[in-house]
Structures are given as structure tokens and as C-alpha cells.
Amino acid sequence: MSPRSARLARLSRSVTFSACHRLHSKSLSDEENLKLFGKCNNPNGHGHNYKVIVTVRGEIDPVSGMVMNLTDLKEFMQEAIMEPLDHKNLDKDVPYFSEVVSTTENVAVFIWDNLQKLLPQGILYKVEVHETEQNVVVYKGEQTIVK
């Protein structure tokens, strides 16, 4: 491969935010919610220090040597993740979660959708949300076909 051949790379950046939520589905009775979500269905909620790793993918620019300027990625993550989610009650402060259960899976989808609006088309590769050290969700924008 010559030095001028395009090279693909993945670039990741992480942020940490704190938020509280209550796992509760309006589609289920109180008893069903308690059975499904257990202590995470506490009426007063509970909190996490979430870690989010965003990975973008693209060609390494031959002039800058970068897939993307990290300063730009940092600003996009501030707008898409930190501003709407940090130190918030996800269920009460974030309109998206008024109708969607605030599971880590849905937090990952929310972040993905927000980033897609800001990042250059096609560059977002994955969003990884660590709810705890043991619980991690990876979302790559994949959808299933409605049956």
C-alpha cells in the first residue's frame, strides 16, 4: 500500500455523567413493574455514574492526520450527552423518557440519535454506555424490521 492510500481508523472519546431514573413501564401494572425491575423500580428512583464511550470511524485525513478533530467531537458530546443528561432525573427532566423506559439500552439509543444530528453523515460507529462496571450496552444504530 502506498503512503497515499486511504486508511480507515476508529477514534473514541469518553465522558462520565451522573443521573437518576426509575425503571417503570406505563404499559405494565405496578405489580408487574416491581416483578420485572425489582429494586430499580423504587418510586423515588436510583442513580448511576454513567460512562459513555463514543466511537467514530472514517478515513485518516492525509493533511491533518485525523479521522476527526477531537475538539469537535468533545463539543458534540457535550451538546448531545452532557447538556441533556448530566445531573438530571432522566424520567422527569428529559422529554424523550416521558414515553420511553429509561433503560441503559434506551439511553444508548437517545445518545446515538442526538449525536447523529450533529456529527458528519456516516461517521458515528458506536455508542457504549456503562451503567455500572458490570453492565454495558453497545449500540451501533441497528434497527430491526417491523413485522
TrEMBL record:
Active site: 40, 87, 131
Ligand binding (Zn(2+)): 21, 46, 48
GO molecular function: 6-pyruvoyltetrahydropterin synthase activity; metal ion binding
Domain of life: Eukaryota
Named cofactor requirement(s): Zn(2+)
GO-annotated biological processes: tetrahydrobiopterin biosynthetic process
Annotated EC: 4.2.3.12
Cofactor binding summary note: Binds 1 zinc ion per subunit.
Pathway where this protein functions: Cofactor biosynthesis; tetrahydrobiopterin biosynthesis; tetrahydrobiopterin from 7,8-dihydroneopterin triphosphate: step 1/3
One GO cellular component, as annotated: mitochondrion
Family: Belongs to the PTPS family.
Name of the protein described by the UniProt record: 6-pyruvoyl tetrahydrobiopterin synthase
Annotated gene: Pts
